[in-house]
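Ops channel
N.P.: pipeline sanity check, posting one input/output pair.
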């Protein structure tokens, strides 16, 4: 993000990501829209098959 978009702080990173998400959402049906993102520096919790444990990640954030 730093090299490509000149985004150094978390707010600028979120802003750049949301701009891309808005472009993608325009091409998708409403039920597939991306409605929320979470930016983190930490490694995500994964299963043994390398899938993200979304419920565990949400518990950690909230």
């Amino acid at each position: 993000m730093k090299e490509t978009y000149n985004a150094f702080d978390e707010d600028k990173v979120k802003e750049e990501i949301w701009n891309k998400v808005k472009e993608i959402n325009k091409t998708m049906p409403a039920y597939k829209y991306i409605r929320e993102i979470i930016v983190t520096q930490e490694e995500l919790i994964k299963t043994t098959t390398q899938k993200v444990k979304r419920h565990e990640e949400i518990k950690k954030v909230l």
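N.P.: looks fine end to end. The CA atoms of residues 12 and 53 lie 27 Å apart.
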